[in-house]
Amino acid sequence: MTDTLRTLLDAALSSEADPGDIAALPLPATMRAAVVRKDEVGMFDGMTSDEKDPRKSLHVDEVAVPELGPNEVLIAPMASALNFNTVWTSIFEPLSTFGFLERYGRESALAKRHDLDYHIVGSDAAGVVVRVGPGVTRWRPGDRVTVHCNSVDLEGPEGHDDSMIDTRQRIWGFETNFGAMAQLSLVKANQLMPMPTHLTWEEAASLSLTLATSYRMLVSANGARMKQGDVVLVWGATGGLGGFATQLVRNGGGIPVCVVGGAEKVALLRSLGVEHVIDRKAEGYAFWSDDATPVPQPSEWRRFGKRIRELTGGEDPDIVFEHPGRQTFGASVFVVKRGGTVVTCASTSGYSHEYDNRYLWMHLKRIVGSHFANYKEAWEANRLVDRGMIHPILTQTYPLDAVADAAHAIHTNAHTGKLGVLVNARSEGLGVADPEKRQRYAGDLEAWRRLT
Ligand code: NAP
């Protein structure tokens, strides 16, 4: 870390510093950042997804500090966290994210800043504000913040009911440049939220993207509108999305039926008091035939549905929390209750789905598409954390230099919960503003950490 950056950080983190004094300190000209490079986009051509290795394409480079524009804020991320979108960026699938940056760059002179020959990744951060741009009134240098990843101006009318509908809505650090995994990061002022006071930097950084996505999918009026007593089937229940979905279902008086791959994950969920767990690997579900041209296997959907009924005392899921996609979607549509909802935000195993539409229309089921969350939804989800009602599921933290190892772990599904990245923080365990509050939630924090 350069002396200029160290001086800036020390001032921004000091409880005595005046916001004006922090703003007057010089910024460094360059910074360290996790990037993919445009001249390497073709490096995996001809390989299968499994063969594409983020450790070859994700680098930590010295790059220029971005210029600050109106309604923007420059933050110093103390920590960030891996999301699956960084895997997509680093294996250039389904498309290279440089296409997003080029398109964004054509929007305006200011947006042109994003169209570079490197892409700084990362869509989750906790850190401190070091500069605010013209027009920013709610945030000041020295504020400790978490960042949600919905980047939108709302200049046009489309997004004013729900900013996720805005045609210019983008995911920060995925469809924009200057993401979280850099010593300084550029965000819009309307991405900031107060950092929960009982959490460490890395815990606070591990929440927003997957928690707010799960919140919108399950709780929000824009999603499945879960109510008390609903049976909710949660795929990947110890993963980034599923770990929060499980907590949200329990908080809201629902009954989670959790699907995981492996006995250890079953034991972990049981230790957290989750009653209904299915080990998809032990059960050996084959929702598709495994020949050259695979076809769906409805008899396996039926076997899966029977297992759910055995656990729930004969009930089908009111809601299916979907994200694996092609491998599971047909089963999800089949098992959801008459009149129930399959809510989906992803297609990890393939985005071309097949399901039997007779089960959908004859049984009046709904499929709801969902994508991240608007500011209000992200704020409400952050509030649940601050009130100790949702806990981080951070299982491991990597230094910035090892970010590619973390991306590789996610790509190979060798992880549970969330993987953190220390950016400016010198070590884990720092950043707690209210130790007494942390003590109140110590048992819960420890329990969810056991997801490791
Ligand atoms: P994650 O931490 O890797 O967890 C996903 C879990 O799904 C895995 O741990 C795995 O658990 C399970 N899974 C994977 N492949 C499966 C398959 N073929 N069949 C059944 N289960 C499977 O990832 P995540 O952060 O939860 O994200 C999941 C997906 O959602 C990614 O594609 C990501 O890009 C997307 N996503 C979308 C949004 C959005 O806003 N649209 C937001 C966040 C994430 P087990 O092996 O234990 O079953």
Proportion of residues in extended strands: 15-25%
Helical percentage: 25-40%
Shape: globular
Which radius of gyration do the C-alpha atoms yield?
22 Å
Bound molecules: NADP nicotinamide-adenine-dinucleotide phosphate
The biggest beta sheet reads: 7 strands, mixed
Task: Please name the CATH architecture of the largest domain.
Answer: Alpha-Beta Complex
- Spatial gap, N to C terminus: 31 Å
Overall mean pLDDT: 96
Backbone structural class: alpha/beta
Question: Uncertain segments of ≥5 residues (pLDDT<50)?
Answer: none
CATH level-3 fold name of the largest domain = Quinone Oxidoreductase, Chain A, domain 1
Overview in brief:
This protein has about 450 residues and is α/β, with parallel strands linked by helices. It has helices at about 5-15, 20-25, 55, 85-90, 100-105, 200-205, 210-220, 240-250, 265-270, 280-285, 300-310, 330-335, 355-360, 375-385, 405-410, 435-440, 440-450; strands at about 30-35, 60-65, 70-80, 120, 125-130, 145, 150, 170, 185-190, 190-195, 230-235, 255-260, 275-280, 320, 340-345, 365-370, 395-400, 420. About 50% of the residues are buried.
Can you walk me through this structure?
- Helices cover 31% and strands 19% of the residues.
- With 452 residues, the chain is an alpha/beta fold.
- Strands 3, 5, 6, 9, 10, 17 and 18 form a seven-stranded mixed β-sheet that branches. Strands 13-12-11-14-15-16 form a six-stranded parallel β-sheet, with helices on both faces.
- Helix 12 links the parallel strand 14 and strand 15.
- It is globular and about 65 Å long.
- The two termini are 31 Å apart.
- The mean pLDDT is 96.
- The structure holds NADP nicotinamide-adenine-dinucleotide phosphate.
